[in-house]
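Working notes for the structural subgroup meeting. M.R. asked for a predicted model of this chain before we commit to crystallization trials. I am recording the input and output together here so anyone reviewing the notebook later can reproduce the run.

Input as submitted:
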Amino acid sequence: MREISLHILDLVQNSIEAGATAVKLEIIETIVKDSMVIRVYDNGRGMNKKMRQLVIDPFITTRTTRRIGLGLPLMDMSTKRCGGYLKIDSTPGQGTVIEAMYQHSHFDRPPMGNLVETIKSILVGNPVLEFSYKHTVDDKSISISSREIADILDGISLTQPDVLIWLHGYLSDNIANLYGGANDENN
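Returned structure, recorded in token form:
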């Protein structure tokens, strides 16, 4: 995958397919420490030690729709190429935490991609998922959750055109503010 936002979408989809009803996405960019850490927490079925080792093998998958799983192996390779790591912490019956770290300034670090559309897709495409997103860049931070949005909308569907426009603007403005106001979705 050429963009981090696509890796994130894949990780969240993995969580949903593992039976998660709650997923938390956390992105921490620290320019001084030259790092970008992405964490996805879920309350899905979890994995035992053997499966945690196998899931970074591109020829192993638990999906029935295809026989190979490329998301985690590609992310593992991508992080290592950029001076980072991929860590999987999982307990059967309790859930999984995936942590990916990239050297922020590394020449080969994939661009963030269209994070606005990724977050919108997760929220709109999974209306019963309890989803939260927190993104920190140095001393600036934003957070949003499906629960907060549901409270604001008070029963109005996320799929309503006016709501989609509002959500896009809200995410775009807040993510741009993390980077000093420049609306650069390919950061």
